[in-house]
Amino acid sequence: xxxxxxxxxxxxxxxxxxxxxxxxxxxxxxxxxxxxxxxxxxxxxxxxxxxxxxxxxxxxxxxxxxxxxxxxxxxxxxxxxxxxxxxxxxxxxxxxxxxxxxxxxxxxxxxxxxxxxxxxxxxxxxxxxxxxxxxxxxxxxxxxxxxxxxxxxxxxxxxxxxxxxxxxxxxxxxxxxxxxxxxxxxxxxxxxxxxxxxxxxxxxxxxxxxxxxxxxxxxxxxxxxxxxxxxxxxxxxx
Length: 238
Ligand code: ADP
Ligand code: MG
What we know:
The structure is a single chain. This protein has about 240 residues and is of the alpha/beta class. The protein has a domain at about 1-80 and about 195-238: 3-Layer(aba) Sandwich (Rossmann fold). The protein contains 9 helices and 10 strands. It has helices at about 45-50, 75-80, 95-105, 115-125, 140-155, 170-185, 200-205, 220-225, 230-235, and strands spanning about 5-15, 20-30, 35, 60-65, 65-70, 80-85, 160-165, 190-195, 205-210, 215-220. Strands 6-7-8-3-9-10 form a 6-stranded mixed beta sheet, with helices on both faces. A 4-stranded antiparallel beta sheet has the order 2-1-4-5, covered by helices on one side. A hairpin with a 2-residue loop joins β4 (about 60-65) and β5 (about 65-70). The longest helix is centred in the last third of the chain and has 16 residues, at about 170-185. The protein is globular. Adenosine-5'-diphosphate (ADP) binds near residues 38, 41, 42 and 44. One of its GO terms (molecular function) is ATP binding. It holds the Pfam family ABC_tran.
């Protein structure tokens, strides 16, 4: 059995009158690829924002390895090894792809590190080595998304949170992103992704957590989840 890298207990987030996340529990094993699915507005991005520290918990607890994250600001969570890849990548447009990834490497742990080796490794994991010398300006949506993963990977995270990495990608780009996320895990980083593309999410994930209206309604293997009547009713039906 592998260690639990991230756990949540009674995780709850209220925005004034609205309960966006309620009593959600999770245990993500180190080395896994987990999915997080559910209808729009279910609270998926909010949950990721609670893990990164962008939002503070209303109640409950999130632990990263044995550490309670409550007192850690976002940058300390980054330093501890939690990275987030955003759907909209905002690279420095005038810099090359390699330079953009190198910035990620420099924001990683400030220990003695060879930034060039880390950068090349991240480019290779994301499958964008051949784009390394192009400026970020004018990259396709698919290439930008891979650049976003490469920048996150260059910080050498232990956990990568990816919010809808395949949204808006064509089937070829989606397949490349799936491969990219598999490479991230191969390298030893645990991955938790929000994704609406069910083909992608079921092909890549070991297990999937389903939330609806802020509550966890199911968790299991892709096969268990797609056959779960509650999941079909809340999300997959029609
Ligand atoms: P998902 O990512 O699953 O589509 P979100 O986590 O973005 O859902 O949103 C969950 C609910 O929380 C929605 O009703 C949304 O409007 C609300 N919400 C998210 N962020 C905020 C915020 N900063 N202030 C108020 N309400 C918010
Ligand atoms: Mg969202």
